[in-house]
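Re: [help] complex structure
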Amino acid sequence: MNRFEVLKTIVPVVRDRLVVCNIGSPSQELRFLCDQDSNFYMLGTMGLCSSIGLGLAMSCDESVIAIDGDGSILTNLGGLATIANNPCSNFVLLIIDNGSYGSTGDQPTYAGAQTSLAKVAQACGCKHVVECSGKHLAATLEDVLERGTGGVIVCKCDPGQVPAPVVDLDPVVIAHRFSARVSRGRLDHAGTSSANAA
Amino acid sequence: MTCRAAAAPGGPLSGRKGILVATATDKEIVQCLVGNGVQFITSLPCKQLAGVIDLVEREPGMRHVPCTREDEGLGMCVGAHLGGRKSAILMQNTALGVIVNAIATLVQYYHVPVPMIVSHRGEVGEPVACQVEMALHTRPLLDMLKIPSYSFTDPGQIELLDGILGHCFMSRKPVAVLAQASFWSRAQ
Ligand SMILES: [Mg+2]
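Output below.
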C-alpha cells in the first residue's frame, strides 16, 4: 500500500475531524479524497505540520490529527520532544512513513533505513506510540481517537503517490474556512455541554 | 483535556521553578501581552529574556510552551491562531537565521499575526564577539521580510508596546520588537 491507498482507508475516520496535513502530495491526495473545511493544507514550510497540529490541539477541545510524513518529521525531530513534554489528550500525530521523500521523486529517507521514528518518539518521551502497517491504520487511528489519550502513530507503507492536482486554494481561504470550522465546533461543543447540563 | 491554552498555570518544566528574576519592565511586557489577549506563548531562552519567560510560565491566563527551535515555535503559534488563540514568541535575534522560511511560507502566507519579542544581542556592550555577526544581519533580514520592527533601547519605550501589539493583530502580520542591551540593563 502506498500513501494514497492508506489515506483512502482513513477517509471515514478523518471525515469532519480537524486535520492538519503535510505539504505536497499528502495534502494533494487528501484534498482529492476528502476535501473539507476542517482540513488545513500546508502549501509550504516542510517540517512544521506536527507543530501546527500541537499548537492547534492545545487551543481547542476537539481532536486534532496531524498527517505528517517521515521526511518532514526528520527535519523537526525536536518537535517530538515538545509533543512528549506537553502531553495533549486530543492530539494525534500520524506519521505516514513511506521511507521516502515522496513529493520530490521518492528519494529514500533515513526512516526507511536505520532510523525508527517510533523509537525516536518513544525516546523523546512520547506515550502511546504505535507502529502499524497501512492495512491496520484505520482501526489503529479509530482506537486512539476513541481512547482519547492522544498519541503518535507511525504507519509504515510503500513509496509512491498518485498525480492529484496541486492545491490551488488561496492560503488565506484555507486558514479562514478552517478557523471558522474550529469556531463552529467550539460553539457546538458549548451547546452540547449546556444541553447536557440542563 | 489536559492541554488547552490558558488552562492551569505552569508549563511542562514548571517543576524546576527557581528564584523569580523578573524586573518591573519584564512584568510590564507580560501584562501588555495579557492585556492584548495573548494566551499562547512559545520561547527559546536568552539570558535577557529570562525574567519574561519566568513570568509567562507563572501567568495563569497564558499557556507557555517552550520550543526546541524557533521555526517549530512559529508552527505552534500558527496552530494556536487557527484554534482561535492569540500567540506570541520570545526569542533571540539569532533565531532570524532559523525562521525565514516559516515566516514567509507560513506566518505571512496565511496572514497570521505573531508578535516576536526579540532580545537583540550583539550591539555596543556585547561581550560575545560572535553575537555581533547576526546583529549585523538582524535589521536587514527584518526589512527584507517586510516585518515591521521596533527598537527598544530604554525601558521607557515599553509604553509603545501596547500599540505595537494592537497593530500586529489588526494587520494580521508578524511584528518584531528588538529589545537592545541598554533596554535590559536599564530595566529595574
Ligand atoms: Mg515520506
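The longest helix of chain B spans residues 129-144.
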